Automatic annotation (TrEMBL):
This is GDSL-type esterase/lipase family protein. Signal peptide: none annotated. It comes from Megasphaera intestinihominis. Residues 5-178 form the SGNH hydrolase-type esterase domain. Pfam families: Lipase_GDSL_2. SUPFAM superfamilies: SGNH hydrolase. Transmembrane segments: none annotated.
């Protein structure tokens, strides 16, 4: 299977070696060839803009995850959802499976790394929670296969008692392995 993954730094695999990103781990543990089109700092508006760059007919399935940067930059939930609808609709027009990723929460330590102000962490996480609820509902409505990275990372941290973040926004290598496990499970690998 050839899979196009469109997203931001969470899809790209920021802050780990290329072979430790969730996309590389999924490829290594399956027969899935992934074109990783995660771009650090990208927003859902940027992803809509980048859609025209791809020959979608070359792919067997599509993965999309975005919205974290929009929320960290103070973007409106309505606009984020509108952009995601555009992307999913474009992918769905191909008549192939669409996987919809739900981004994880951020942590207070993200402020030390300059990703957001400490006073904004809870507000942004509230936005991510609302967005998650919308994605769960929208995924069901559009028959996308939802991959809940938010829940996977949260459960893994509770289960292991370990910090799975590198900088409060991006997973560390162990965290990306958790995300890869969630993808493999969702894809039946």
């Amino acid at each position: 299977m050839k899979l196009l993954c469109l997203g931001d730094s969470l899809t790209y695999g920021f802050d780990v070696r290329p072979d430790q990103s969730w996309t590389a781990l999924v490829s290594a543990k399956s027969h899935i060839h992934i074109d990783n089109e995660g771009q650090c700092g990208d927003t859902t508006t940027g992803m809509v803009y980048r859609l025209h760059q791809f020959d979608l007919s070359r792919y067997d399935a599509f993965f999309i995850m975005g919205g974290s940067n929009d929320i960290l930059l103070g973007g409106e939930l309505e606009k984020i959802c509108q952009n995601m609808r555009t992307i999913v609709t474009t992918f769905k027009e191909q008549g192939k499976p669409v996987y919809l990723g739900i981004p994880p929460l951020t942590k207070m330590e993200s402020a030390m790394y300059g990703w957001q102000n400490a006073s904004d962490v809870e507000k942004h996480n509230d936005g991510l929670r609302q967005y998650r609820q919308w994605l769960l509902s929208y995924g069901k409505e559009t028959e996308c296969i939802v991959i809940d990275f938010y829940e996977a990372l949260l459960k893994a941290e509770r289960r292991t008692g370990r910090n799975l973040y590198a900088d409060g926004v991006h997973p560390n290598a162990e965290g990306y392995a958790v995300l890869a496990g969630a993808v493999l499970k969702a894809m039946g690998c």
